[in-house]
Amino acid sequence: MAMTGGVVDVGSHTVRLLVARREGGGLQTVHSEGVRVGLGREIEERGRISEVKLADAAKTVRKLCTLARRHGAEHVEVLVTAPGRQSANARELVAVLERAAKTSVQVLSAEEEARLAFVGAVSVARPSAGLVGVCDLGGASTELAIGIPGREPTWIRSVELGALRLTVRRLPDERPSEEELEVARREVEDVFRGFAPPLPGAALVVGGTARALRKLVGPTLGPDELAQAVSELSSRSHSAIARRHGVDRRRTPLLLGGALILSEVQRRLVVPLEVVGAGLREGALVRSLDAVAA
Fold first, then answer.
1. I want to staple 118 with a disulfide (CB 3.0 to 4.6 A). Which of 124, 136, 145, 149 is the partner?
2. What pLDDT digit, counting tens, does each position of 104-117 carry?
3. Which residues, at least 6 apart from 231, have a Cβ–Cβ distance to it below 8 Å?
4. Are 133 and 203 within 8 A, CB to CB?
5. Mind listing the pLDDT tens digit for each residue in 17-62?
6. Domain 4-108: which topology?
7. Helix, strand, or coil here: 98?
8. 111-275: CATH class
9. The two domains 4-108 and 111-275 share their CATH topology (first three levels equal)
């Protein structure tokens, strides 16, 4: 019988759970859900996570770990991404999460995050190209990994800029001016300066902001689609965007920053970015379930 596993992913904007089992070379989802906690905004504004947010994160992780076990997960991993690397009190975060989860908590390096996102996206999307790029757009960082499907990625880079971080720094208000947009674009260009990736035959993009952008302009994010997204997101209110496209109102403020980052990523990879629903959590489960089965 196929083993069932669970992953709780503690990110800058949301804490997410995936419970799945390995079947026929792929993953069969048993249960998934996410809870917005918003650790990244506090880290960006204060440099650390408040006691209130630590308690909120612990409560959320406790709930999701319990749900994972109820849904049959025989083991549950708790992974922390950018908050564990960027917060001044990251050790305190890990400690409260371990008490809540009743298991060890792993803080992923940027490289580990990129590798898992690559494995997860490629294993589910199964692109036919010989060389594939995967962009993991997060709230406080963005990872790029390029490699041959079925193997480890050979080119990995990460920048300490994600959709939430760019929004807090450069796009705090709705309907920014052209000058504010240009300042945000320049910051994105600066962090990617010097990146010279091998050009893939196909590129995938993962993350909640990318999935929300799919609702605006479709699953293929080429230069025209991303320009359309930037134009609409910079000229309409957040509530109007949420109503028109069915996007979570709490996610809407991050979309313009995300579109600007993905515009630069797409420009450097040349090929359009295909939005996929699988990433880090799927990659972690593929690895852990395969290791148990070996």
1. 145
2. 999 999 999 999 99
3. none
4. yes
5. 999 998 777 789 999 999 999 999 999 999 999 999 999 999 999 9
6. Nucleotidyltransferase; domain 5 (3.30.420)
7. helix
8. alpha beta
9. yes
